[in-house]
Design brief:
Largest sheet of chain A: 5 strands, mixed
Number of strands of chain A: 9
Largest interface: A-B, 34 and 35 residues
Number of domains of chain A: 2
CATH class of the largest domain in chain A: Alpha Beta
CATH topology of the largest domain in chain A: Nucleotidyltransferase, domain 5
Strand content of chain A: 15-25%
Oligomer: homodimer
Chain lengths: 313, 313
């Protein structure tokens, strides 16, 4: 069997989908997922790329899941889609750090690495190298499109310090703000005080306790309130409904410049809320089907194409 | 001379106004400011009250400014107004840490400490123990009122993670967001790209550089854009005007529940913009004079009253 036909028959790939809240890892053999794990997030931080942590986990995953009776345990490729790795410089620094950590913690055998941003992994999963766009609603929000010239266009994805309208962190911060305004007497009563108090581990009826805890709360945990906002909106809470409406409008706005003939798929935990998904769909005035399993669809696509995706900026 | 008349004649006070961006310190003798310094902020951080840093600076300040030929260099009191010290527990922890740092770095002589939040110091400066309210527009925003029952009412002041509408950080974040939306093609062109690029130390004409730098920017620096937003609004930039308008509306909303017969004064760097001040005044539909020198007015008030203010929650 020569190398290229071996690739088509029994390509062994490690695929990593690294987001802000988790790392989805799968070992794929011959177009099927042989082993899979949901691990903690190792999204690069300011000043720490966290490739050591990632490769320690990958080494442990592979060590646990590689069948001992297989003669050939070499990988044909590692595909990494990682949040926060976007610009050319970030890619260069990250792949450098990744390969050095891989050599240290996983294997000294050479392995081809395909490094993408997590959004690009998603786009590749949904459309390969064809024209198409994805709208992501997780902790943050962004749109990524491959246009008719094959170029990537990105809208949003700025992080919560600059602009993350309609994303999970944004929904959570709005919920906290609504509770703050209620406690101040400059906003309406809202049941959102319940999930906010629960996140802060205080009694929702003890307003002084909520006030003190909210004022000292850890901002990074706000995104955990997103599902509660969508839930209380479904239950009819006026403040939650207003936040949901504004969030959906902001997500639809991310699609403003996507041509009508370009397909768009949704991805992310926020779209588990059927109402939020339908609201965005209605405001964007276009069909927005959901992509469920990024790695599953990607591996199937790679198997059919018989080759690895390429970094394609 | 007995103790009480000595107090009236030659009371020696150290007054500290500790905010989020600086620490204003003054040594006051007999109702006049004998020495004054503007030092870096030592606002308590999560997990570090920074009282050691404060007392090191105070010891150095007193050592430099106490006249050597004075027989009595004892202080009659230290008045500290400190940002982030609000709840009973925070006051207790802070005064404990302050006195221990004071003993270590300044003097083992007993000195009476009056500890207030920075907003309460401001309120005391403006109104003593009378009814009145202050509206603060600095890095954050808040209203603090002493009501007819002598109780303190606070609105806003939640910090940027929850709600800081109309404050400096908020104005800066909106400016960054406007630039992000402009770069995305989902918002109008704005000259705010100039101060944003300048803050990020990149060329405003190199949009890729602005994009990359903005995505990696340090959120805590956003407040530095506030003055630029107000400046570009004065110059007619549409995005800046919209941000200024919304900010002023939010500040006016903080005054919503302040009775019409209660006097309100403004304080904070944002009101150096005459337009912003007048906009808030018009939206709040009440006169809003500015308080310029918190320590100066406070020391004069103490001198006239012949006694220290008390912690008054």
């Amino acid at each position: 069997m020569d190398a290229s036909s071996r690739r088509l028959v029994a390509m062994r790939l490690l695929v990593v989908d690294g987001g802000a809240t988790g790392t989805d890892v799968a070992l794929c053999v011959d177009g099927r997922i042989a082993a899979r794990a949901e691990l903690p997030s190792v999204k690069p931080l300011r000043g720490d790329l966290r490739t050591d942590q990632l490769c320690l986990m990958l080494g442990s995953f592979l060590g646990t899941h590689t069948a001992v009776d297989e003669a050939d345990v070499m990988l044909d490729g590692v595909i990494v889609g990682m949040a926060g790795v976007w610009s050319e410089r970030e890619r260069y620094e990250y792949s450098d750090a990744f390969m050095s950590a891989w050599t240290q913690y996983v294997s000294t055998d050479h392995v081809p690495l395909v490094l993408l941003s997590d959004a690009e992994l998603l786009l590749t999963s949904a459309f390969g190298t064809d024209v198409g766009a994805v709208l992501i609603g997780g902790t943050g929000s962004m749109m990524l499109m491959r246009d008719a010239d094959g170029l990537l266009q990105r809208v949003g994805g700025w992080g919560h310090a600059v602009d993350d309208a309609g994303g999970g962190y944004w929904l959570g911060r709005r919920a906290s703000g609504a509770v703050a305004r209620m406690l101040d007497g400059r906003g309406p009563e809202t049941l959102l005080i319940r999930p906010v108090a629960s996140l802060l581990r205080v009694d929702a009826d003890d307003h002084d306790a909520v006030r003190n805890a909210l004022r000292r709360s850890d901002p990074s945990r706000m995104a955990r309130l997103a599902q509660a906002v969508l839930y209380y909106a479904d239950e009819g809470d006026a403040a939650a409904i207003e936040i949901r409406q504004e969030g959906a409008r902001e997500l639809a706005l991310l699609l403003q410049n996507v041509p009508a003939n370009v397909e768009v798929v949704l991805y992310g935990s926020l779209f588990e809320s059927q109402t939020y998904r339908e609201l965005v769909e209605r405001l964007a005035a276009r069909p927005l089907p959901k992509l469920h399993d990024v790695i599953g669809v990607l591996v199937d696509r790679i198997h059919r194409a018989g080759q690895l995706p390429t970094t394609s900026v």
